[in-house]
Amino acid sequence: MPTWSSGEFAEIADMTSQAKPSLKPGLLAVEDLSIAFKTEKGTLLAVDQVSYQIEAGKTLGMVGESGCGKSTTALALMGLLPSSASVSGQAHFFGEQLFAQTQAQWRRVRGNRMAMIFQEPMTALNPVIQIGEQISETLFLHQGLTGKVAMDRAIEMLDEVGIASARTRAAAYPHQLSGGMRQRAMIAMALACRPQLLIADEPTTALDVTIQAQIVELMLELQDRIGMSIQFISHNLGVVSELADNIVVMYAGRIVERAPAALLFSQARHPYSVGLIQTLPNLKHRQAQLPVIPGGMPHLGSALQGCRFADRCQRVVTQCREQVPALISIGPEHDVACFRADA
Amino acid sequence: MMCISSTPPLLQVDHLAVHFPMARASWFQRGPSPVLQAVADVSFHILPGETLALVGESGCGKTTLGRALVGLHASIQGSIRFKGQDLATMSPTQRQQTRRSVQMIFQDPYESLNPRLPVSDVITEPLLIHGLGGGAERADRARDLIAQVGLPVDALNRYPHQFSGGQRQRIAIARALGPEPELIVADEPLSALDVSIQSQILNLMSQLREERGLSYLFISHDLSAVHHLADRVAVMYLGHLVELAPRSELFDNPGHPYTRALIDAIPQIGQGRRSRGRTIQGDLPSPLNPPTGCAFHPRCPKVQAICKTQAPLLQPAAQGGGQQWVACHFKD
User: Fold this and answer.
1) Which residues from B are below 8 Å from A178, CB to CB?
2) Does B152 contact A at CB distance below 8 Å?
3) Per the CB < 8 Å rule, is B270 touching A276?
4) Whole-model pTM?
């Protein structure tokens, strides 16, 4: 197996191809996505050879800590990365290669067939435009609805996401709504054009636990009704567990494990996934000391060799520091990137 | 509230209220200016070595309560007694001494550390303020403290921006430990941190508690962390305590419908999809215009006519052996 050094993408592509057998064709197929940022201190590889698929009507949970590349991946799919980013790899959305699109083509997809909601609705919504107006704008751009027709549809959407007295609320500005209500308004906007894929980037992180539970319920309910697929990005394993059909765990820009939700929680094999699950305080089983993952995330700009988790891993062997473990299939629909997954 | 145990409490809070006068909505508005009641008639105690958790949604007044205890809000009503001494009637020397014994850890370690000071100065500043030791002694103390929170000694020469969030929270803990406090008010110390780092800080907090016999007021909205760390739990809703109970009683048999709602809202891993219809509806009402009667009644699944007119008092429930106090007309 080849040793990895930054730039040798072709070699790694060979390695990741071993993982492909467990992928099924779907609505979105991301293949070998790598995203690098040019910074003053050199190139920073934020996302490294990431491949995954989302099936129609299903929810993919993407889990990892800050800096693992999960948000960057989402922004790339929406074509929202800054010009300092260089993207390689492919993303097929209904067979169309997203990264080969012109800006005009991208605008037709974005907000229409594919929509995104963000962590902090207060910064994602326009503070000086009324909520109803903001939703109408999407409907005008993608469906050509104007005036009263668009506004009525916007009010219907607000009603659909559980905002009481939707007609009055449509005239409210974002600051007049509570955090949970703002997130509902953002979901209404994202779903206005009935997208086939909804990308939700930490949509509940800024919310209270009670409101978080409300939003999770709402998303499950809307998925039943509308049938969209969801890519749900979160650092919170609990929330992801309550929504996702399949889960990918990311660490420092790479996918370290990929499995159906139930399988991951019962039989996680990557030391990082195992650590993440064990490290959460458990209501049923209280321990004096919580198991911890020592240390912190490595800096992505530094010359990384071998497995990026090696410095925090308890099962580390010499091989881990020299070679990058490929994401390989270890069971039906279960892929792990670890030399010591059997240990 | 009475102190039930025979040990004298470290901290005794009685009928504490904090309110903020607000600006009038319009220049033409008549009458008195509106008042925001952030904390209303709150009583509790903390024993030596005990960890009391304070939980509730954002805006419920838990941070205001914590800040009032360390003297960061000047105008308060009610009494705060530390080792039997009322803070309001203490001599300035005694108050200084008490402030030394009650330290605080803040939520966001990116904002609570002075970016212009090297870590050594961040940690020794409280020692300087309280006149503890000479220069060389303080430097020794800083080296001890930084080691106790699990950071290398060379961290002292660096600046806060050179550390990750978890490391900064360790520095904030070292700073709080400096004056050898007996009580630490920790205001959401985990919420700005990554999951794998949260458990490191939780472990550090419980380890320090064992080693030094510290008491904590642990303010958090994360009930899993509260379950892990707390001996007793106080649940706050719109400025009022609605339940106060030992940890296991509270989690096993919550007396207040709001406590139950908070526990139900905790996401559970590996249980499959969230079952619908068990989530509490609505938002926390505005504290400027609180509901009549029980503040929780607009969201309560058990609401009756009496709840809309009469505010329930915090009283011992039938269960919990007199240890579980609940403010609900239908607690039994």
Assistant:
1) 283-284
2) no
3) no
4) 0.88
d(CA A329, CA B262): 40
Q: Do B57 and A178 touch (CB under 8 A)?
A: no
Cβ of residue B289 closer than 8 Å to a chain A Cβ: no
Looking at residue B35, its pLDDT comes to: 85
Q: Do B224 and A217 touch (CB under 8 A)?
A: no
Is the CB of A210 less than 8 angstroms away from the CB of B280?
Answer: yes
Contact A259, A335 (CB under 8 A): yes
CA dihedral A75, A81, A85, A90 (to 10 degrees): 50
Strands laid side by side in the A229-234 sheet: A114-117, A197-201, A229-234, A59-63, A246-251, A254-260, A334-336, A328-331
**Tokens for B237?**
């809703």
B57 membership: H or E segment, kind and range: none
CA distance linking residue B129 with residue B151, whole number of Å? 24
Per-block average pLDDT, block size 10, for chain A (343 residues)?
40 42 68 92 90 95 92 94 93 91 92 92 92 95 93 95 92 92 94 95 90 94 94 94 96 96 94 92 85 85 82 93 94 94 81
The verdict on a CB contact (< 8 Å) between B276 and A265 is no
User: A65, A235 in Cβ contact below 8 A?
Assistant: yes
- Residues in chain A with CB shorter than 8 Å from the CB of B267 are 209, 212-213, 216, 236, 238-239, 241-242
Contact B200 A210 (CB under 8 A): no
Q: Does residue A76 sit at the B interface (CB-CB below 8 Å)?
A: no
Closest CA to B69 of B207, B191, B258, B215: B215
pLDDT digits (tens, 9 = 90+) for B217-261: 999 988 999 999 999 999 999 999 999 999 999 999 999 999 999
The nearest CA of chain A is from the CA of B107 a distance in Å of: 14
Contact B203 A241 (CB under 8 A): no
pLDDT digits (tens, 9 = 90+) for B5-62: 578 999 999 999 999 988 877 777 777 788 888 999 999 999 999 999 999 998 899 9
What is the interface pTM, i.e. ipTM, of the complex? 0.87
**What's the token pair of residue A280?**
């959460």
Q: Alpha-carbon torsion B299, B301, B304, B310, what sign? A: negative
CB-CB contact of B288 with B222 (8 Å):
no
Average pLDDT over chain B reads: 91
Q: What is the pLDDT of residue B33?
A: 80
What is the residue-wise DSSP string for B174-240? HHHHTT--SEEEEESTTTTS-HHHHHHHHHHHHHHHHHH--EEEEEES-HHHHHHH-SEEEEEETTE
Question: How many residue contacts between A and B have a Cβ separation below 8 Å?
Answer: 135
- CA of B197, closest CA in chain A: separation in Å? 8
The Cα of B79 is separated from the nearest Cα of chain A by a number of Å equal to 30
Q: How far apart are CA B54 and CA B61, in angstroms?
A: 10
Contact A230, A224 (CB under 8 A): no
